[in-house]
Amino acid sequence: MKLGVFAVLFSKMSLGEMLDYVKESGLDTVEIGTGGYVGNAHCNPKELLADSRKLEQFKQAFESKGIKISALSCHGNPLHPNTEIADEHHDVFVDTVKLASILGVESVVTFAGCPGESEYSQHPVWITNPWPEDFSNVVKWQWENKVIPYWKRQSELLEECNVRVAIEPHPGFVVYNTETALRLRNECGNRIGINFDPSHYFWQGMDPVVSIKALGDAIVHFHAKDTKVDNQNCLLNGVLDTKSYADISNRSWVFRTVGYGHGEDVWRDIISALQVIGYQGAISIEHEDGLMSVEEGFSKAVAFLKDMVIKEGAKELWWA
């Protein structure tokens, strides 16, 4: 495994400045945003696909620093009922897959998406309860009419380009937990992988270690981000919370830098579980901590994780 970072943290820096900063921090892998909700500050796939000179300059920027791209990420909602949004996010996904293929990047990170409740919807509808029966009918319609057909088509593209998608289970989208992640993979093929982010598992009450072992080799990329559950607010209102992330004192939970939601033992167990399933990819630091600046959160995450991450070729057993 290699410790890396999701480079959208440094969107205000140029590509060269970002790579220098990452290198100086002792990391040798980065995840690059290509559009969708995360933007494309360092990489515009359509532009690079259309201009071989710019593409070569982009490749050389990484090679000259000895930094590897762990994944291209275009988190979006290609199933959005607003066709303009859906088409935009789909087009970015397709261009990102094609660019990944050319660059030799194995995985593209995104969301599974979320449709509306019918062909007449204007906004996505995420269902969290089976009753009244309307809700169960909506979930059935979404999967059978939108989710499975779309991702079966994208699996053909992924196969053609020899790339895997790393779907990030995330509340608000149809894939949000272990069960729904495995369902999408089982329905649409092994080109459908998982980007595992423990922060979304923590607040939903799941155990990341148990989920990692259940997902096994479906995990093709990993985000290092934590969550702090506020016990008092949670006891009052439960974990479903639509208040602004900025309303930290009143929320049931907030995202934190690794180590500020759960301690070292928990994170060592998570890294160990990744070793158990044979994961050898990146541990990509993500920052959404409202109590720390990007620089502070990033540096503390690096310090917290650097001794936990086992690098490739460094886990020989004494009895082997």
TrEMBL record:
Taxonomically, the superkingdom here is Bacteria
Q: Which PANTHER family match?
A: HYDROXYPYRUVATE ISOMERASE, XYLOSE ISOMERASE-LIKE TIM BARREL DOMAIN-CONTAINING PROTEIN
Coiled coil stretches, renumbered: none
Please report the name of this protein according to its UniProt entry: Xylose isomerase
Keywords attached to this entry: Isomerase
What's one Pfam family here? AP_endonuc_2
Q: Which residues form the Xylose isomerase-like TIM barrel domain?
A: 19-307
GO MF terms held by the record? isomerase activity
Cross-referenced InterPro entries, in alphabetical order?
IolE/XylAMocC-like, Xyl_isomerase-like_sf, Xyl_isomerase-like_TIM-brl
